[in-house]
Specification:
Helix content of chain B: 25-40%
Structural class of chain B: alpha+beta
Shape of chain B: globular
Distance between the termini of chain B: 24 Å
Helix content of chain A: 25-40%
Distance between the termini of chain A: 36 Å
Largest sheet of chain B: 5 strands, antiparallel
Number of helices of chain B: 2
Shape of chain A: globular
Radius of gyration of chain A: 21 Å
Number of strands of chain B: 8
Number of helices of chain A: 13
Largest sheet of chain A: 8 strands, antiparallel
Number of strands of chain A: 19
Strand content of chain A: 25-35%
Oligomer: heterodimer
Order of helices and strands of chain B: EEHEHEEEEE
Structural class of chain A: alpha+beta
Amino acid sequence: MKVQQIDEFRWRIPREGKMRVDGIVYADAAMMEDIRNDESLKQVANVAHLPGIVGASLAMPDIHWGYGFPIGGVAATDADEGVVSPGGVGYDINCGVRLVASRLTRADVTPRLRDIVKVMYARVPTGVGAHRRDLRLSNADLDGVLQQGARWAVDRGYGRADDLAHIEEGGALPGAVPALVSDRARERGQSQLGTLGSGNHFAELQYVAEIYDERVAAAFGLERDQIVAMIHSGSRGLGHQVCEDYLRVMIRAAQKYGIELPDRQLCCAPLKSPEGREYLAAMSAAANFAFANRQVMAHWVRESMADALGMPADALGVRTVYDVCHNIANSNDSQPARCVCTARALRAPTRQDIRRRPRPIARSASRCSFRATWADIPTSSLERKVRTGTRSGRRVTAPAGAGAARTRSGRPGVRK
Amino acid sequence: MAYEFFDHTGDIGVSLSGRTVDELFGAAAAAFTDSITPLEGVEPRRPEELDVAAPELDLLLVDFLSELLYRFDTRGWLTREAQVEVRPRDGGWALEGTLLGEKHDAARHPIRVLIKAVTYHQLHVSEREGTWTAKVVFDI
């Protein structure tokens, strides 16, 4: 694989063969050594084959070997000429991260840490088939969840109305069509709302370990030693089934539209085709399930903290700082003519994100997570590093911008 | 009939082989279950019928394993042994047969990993000199 260094933190995979654009990887030299050891660079090149891809096939610093897209891959496609790829979005549609802050400090909770975590374990279902008996959805309920996302949960008492203002897209993607979500997907989702799932998903009690930018941290109401909770989960079996259903559709569609691809997992259809439009509508519905899922779990985490400490939740000042998705395709409002697909990477910031919203960056359970913002830097200089750490033996760099804070787990909370 | 797991960052890859295509699919079912929980701990207590069809043989492998995933995810069904016949049908391929297994019991079936999806990445099914081989990657 030919790779050219552009500058300290950018590497180009030059266009060749049937690639339509270059690939660009954001990484430093040490990370590149490691990245070259698997097939992720080939996957960056593969994504560059997608019809209508704009600019370049991008890979964020957390790049590693995935299927179809590399993990950390980002692609924008033209609204007229471009395609959408369910494999690009990934199986766990709207897998994302919710950060919940409180007014508690480490000193407040240290003596009660075990109690809080125990209650969290009991309240937030995790593991095979686990779900709460008090939340099983009828088909009509499920339609509401798929259409309204987090609002459906708030309207039924799971959380507070002001949570919605702190969720990406207000907690619901527009354009969702619940009727396009198959019976199998519904069956898988029916008992999984408010469940964490497995793999790298977690709900964790953390504290703010370090502040990098006092001004930004203050704007988000974060300070050193403050207790926060982070939830990393997605659309569960429902989203996986939607992806699976539409991969099957897209394998046929790619043949129908004469789209040649180096990896079947990248199968896709034009954004303007019936297959492309239907996938986006079903994907939006699954994304809304994920927003509702994290909303319900955040509510139970809030309840857990209050019950374990014997105080009303309002007195603890538990509030949502932000909820952001990382497996999604949508039209970026700063560039509405493009559809941006992000595979397990942070989505590119929209105009209103810049200077206002924190982007929680989850890492594996019980390790440091980061809160980063794009504040203070132009989006064109995303290569600026914040900090390097380690993940799965590989250095990982928080991409771009002034990091507001780093949190550290008090101890493993509810996690798989 | 055999299977061997290979390393794929963050996921599970499996190489399968069999003397016949039926054996190959049987190996796929065994590998699928063995990824989730030790295969020998799953008893062939009950039969379940299945019938899956797909336009191509490699797509049939993904659809077959996705069917096993669906049954596990919705009903906790674990397959110990798949007795299946894979044949051409209606211009494509079909699989018919019986799954022998039981429902997941947390006390007897410790979970190794939970498979979230069966992917098309590096998917490959072929026959050479009387041996069938395949590769498939599970998302975990």
